[in-house]
Write a structure and sequence with these properties.
The structure is a single chain. The protein is built from four helices and eight strands. A hairpin with a 7-residue loop joins strand 4 and strand 5. Helix 2 packs antiparallel against helix 4. The longest helix has 27 residues.
Length: 188
Amino acid sequence: MCPRMRYLTTLMLLVAPVSGVGQLPASVGPGTRVRVTSPFVRRQVATVASVSTESMAIVPEQPPRDTLAILLVELQRLEVSQGWKRDTWRGVGVGAVAGGITGAVIGAVTYRRPECDEGAFGCSVADFGPGGQAAIAGALGAIAGAVVGGVIGSLHTSEHWRGVKLQLSVGPAAGRRVGVALAGSTCR
């Protein structure tokens, strides 16, 4: 096909009236708690009221709780709630990192070379230098931080979300026909 015909065919398909038909998984139905993002709805947590092949009606969690209809072709992101869960392991991780860094910094900053008689056995064995003291203090800080973070994390819950893959088919609008006919002409 010559460049001129490609251009005309593309132009015809772009100006033809089209409609979108979306298909959501069976897990997204009335009563499902979702988080929706579209050009007209900014990351809204809502409950699904109804679903059709072209749109979805939701009732937002935040006032005003008026039912909103969103075309499936306009959905940019759709997430389904997986429920509320404790954040124990997240707290352990954050606490360990924060405690380790804090302990290492304090250990390095507070290092002092021990003052003792050179003949004493304990001086050469116990002095690991500023790096060694930072490592030991960092390890102790990480352990303490993990324990404290785990306790705080177990007291905190957050909602977990799973993204839904959106499937969309675009074609001619109902009752309209789009046709492309190519004649046997020669491109020059």
